[in-house]
Design brief:
180 residues; Arc Repressor Mutant, subunit A
């Protein structure tokens, strides 16, 4: 196995452990989950912090969400396309929230400056913008701007607590406005 594949395999095995244990996960637990010896962890990563950072970077990757959005057929109604995209993005945000919540609770702190704007966010916005393309001529704003609004609404939805609207209601308000 190449060093890159070994690192990726270890990261995939560690992500669920981080949600459960946060940064308090032990190298013994990591080794067991990955089916490797503890020494192999340190041949792949300089230390546990480097492994945790690699896990965070993996969690931030947009690939799966972008693929799910790109798989949405453009011949279904726009509201249905957006509802499906919201489900894919909502699942991603929930996974990230669980991971980062567990890491934060266990005392893990990322290096300052690591919260830069990420190209992955652009990839997600671009994939969502494509969902608006069939209706481009009937939109009040360019698809890219509406996609940015849509993804922003989804991100804010997670902060609304018990009062958060369901996805269908959010899509309806985005497409038809808040007035009755």
């Amino acid at each position: 196995m190449t060093p890159e594949k070994r690192r990726a395999m270890i990261v995939q095995a560690v992500l669920p452990l981080l949600v459960e244990h946060g940064a308090a996960v032990t190298t013994s637990q990591i080794a067991r989950a990955a089916g490797i010896g503890e020494a192999t962890i340190f041949r792949a990563f300089a230390d546990k912090d480097e492994l945790l950072d690699a896990c965070v970077e993996e969690a931030l990757r947009p690939d799966n969400a972008v693929a799910a959005i790109e798989a949405i057929p453009l011949d279904v109604p726009l509201a249905d396309r957006l509802t499906e995209a919201a489900s894919a993005l909502g699942a991603r945000l929930e996974r990230m929230g669980a991971l980062f919540g567990a890491l934060r609770a266990s005392g893990y702190k990322r290096e300052r400056g690591s919260h830069k704007r990420r190209p992955g966010n652009d990839a997600i916005r671009d994939a969502v913008a494509e969902l608006f393309e069939p209706e481009r001529d009937s939109l009040r704003l360019p698809p890219e701007q509406i996609a940015a609004m849509f993804t922003g609404l989804l991100m804010m939805r997670g902060r609304m607590g018990d009062e958060k609207p369901d996805i269908a209601a959010m899509v309806d308000v985005l497409l038809h406005g808040a007035a009755r």
